[in-house]
Design goal:
Helix 8 packs antiparallel against helix 9, helix 13 runs parallel beside helix 17 and helix 15 packs antiparallel against helix 18. The chain is mainly α.
Length: 440
């Protein structure tokens, strides 16, 4: 039986919309594949790997940044590929490669080997997965897009809450090499086969409608031509911008800068927060709860931000989430115990959960599904660039100053400025179609 026939038979037999199968697959991938190369998980490896191998934290953090920079180069090409072929194969192959790379990391003994394995893994995290997972959901949903993205965010938060604790337990009981092997096996089991068999590009490819309306809705209510499709009052009529049209809008550039600045803070703090508390004399097992709190608060954030996403203009919500991240960042910089560290990590996670969900939602709502992969592929350069800068800034400044106070203060300022800037990202108006010139 071919993959297409399997998906078609399953879609016809299910008592619910097939888009939720797409969401279920992203849940598995976010819990496993995406978590393995996340900086929040890598944070529990910083101390044991650098101490055993004799590396500086700046050297260790550089692999995260270099992988992100490599993703900048490939993301525009991946975006066009996604628009044409869909996310299924891309996500499945990404999971397979991530599993192989994770097992390979268990054999690391030299910085060049570490970079040769972790840089491609981080590239996959920041490129194919960051593009493929939200695009797969956004292509299947319009009205309930916030809910679909929130479910994926909850899975991501659950993975970041559970897997670092599991990895830390394995490191404590055995060693960090065994932990990497476990992560590779987990990724292979959950991330490869379901994506290959079940994920389809768009509902139209299977003869389905995107996110069907309740029966009580009439056609006139759904497609009222008098409604502004890009309004800020919760209207969800679909627009579709080409890449060239999107590039000519102010919101495109504001969202790109906001993504880079906001997620620079997320990557920088999430990688180094556990090390920050260990440096205060807290044991590694207890300090790991900062990463778990950070992740758990993203679960709560996914629910909260998705509920209000259709009630409040999204630019105001993005601004609020950035301000929460700033509060968490400055609190982390002054925290010296888990009594203050847990609330600080919760604030960062709650704000970061908003950033991830709302940025993805804004791109899809502002510019539509038809060219979403290509548009996001271009803007990923800013987002991934920010995620690449955050860890290396924190690592290098730690090596220079002996602490994290300065880099965490820089992150606070960055988040505040991003929150102010994004208030100017008003929804773009759908360009009017150009009339054809009459032939002579």
């Amino acid at each position: 039986m071919t993959s297409n026939s399997l998906k078609g038979r399953l879609a016809r037999s299910l008592p619910f919309y097939y888009g939720w199968v797409i969401v279920a697959d992203t849940v598995l991938v976010s819990f496993s594949t995406r978590t393995v190369m996340a900086v929040a998980l890598l944070s529990v490896f910083v101390i044991p790997m650098t101490e055993e191998l004799g590396w500086s934290r700046g050297l260790f953090s550089g692999a995260v940044s270099l992988g992100g920079l490599c993703a900048v180069l490939v993301s525009p090409f991946l975006g066009r590929w996604l628009d044409r072929y869909g996310a299924g194969t891309l996500i499945s192959v990404s999971s397979l490669l991530t599993a192989i790379l994770a097992v390979g990391l268990s054999l690391v003994s030299h910085p060049l080997i570490f970079y040769a394995l972790y840089v491609p893994g981080r590239l996959i995290f920041a490129g194919p997965l960051e593009l493929g997972l939200p695009t797969a959901i956004s292509n299947w949903f319009i009205r309930r897009r916030p809910l679909g993205l929130a479910v994926d965010s909850i899975a991501k938060g659950a993975g970041l809450a559970v897997i670092p604790l599991v990895a830390q337990a394995i490191i404590s009981a055995w060693d960090w090499r065994t932990a990497w092997i476990f992560l590779g096996v987990l990724t292979f089991i959950l991330g490869v086969i379901p994506s290959l068999l079940l994920v389809s590009r768009r509902p139209e490819d299977m003869g389905l409608e995107p996110d069907p309306w309740p029966q009580s809705k009439t056609n006139e209510e759904v497609s009222d031509p008098g409604k502004d499709s890009s309004s800020e009052t919760g209207s969800i009529s679909e627009v579709n911008f080409t890449v060239q049209q999107a590039l000519r809008t102010r919101a495109f550039w504001v969202l790109a800068v906001f993504s880079g600045a906001g997620l620079m803070v997320q990557a920088g703090i999430s990688l180094h927060q556990v090390s920050h508390y260990i440096d205060q004399g807290i044991t590694a097992q207890v300090a790991a709860f900062a990463a778990t709190t950070f992740a758990c608060s993203q679960i709560v954030a996914g629910l909260f931000w998705s509920i209000v996403a259709r009630k409040i203009p999204i630019r105001y919500l993005m601004s609020a989430s950035a301000f929460v991240v700033a509060l968490g960042a400055i609190s982390t910089s002054f925290s010296q115990s888990m009594v203050s560290g847990i609330p600080a990590a919760a604030a960062v996670g709650f704000g970061v959960g908003g950033l991830h969900l709302l940025i993805r939602l804004a791109w899809a709502d502002y510019y539509g599904r038809e060219h979403l992969g290509s548009i996001r592929g271009l803007t990923m350069s800013a987002q991934v660039g920010g995620q690449a800068l955050g860890p290396i800034i924190a690592g290098v400044l730690f090596d220079l100053t002996g602490g994290y106070r300065l880099p965490f203060t820089i992150f606070t300022i960055s988040a505040l400025l991003a929150g102010i800037l994004v208030l100017t990202a008003t929804p773009p108006k759908q360009p009017a179609p150009q009339p054809e010139m009459s032939r002579l």
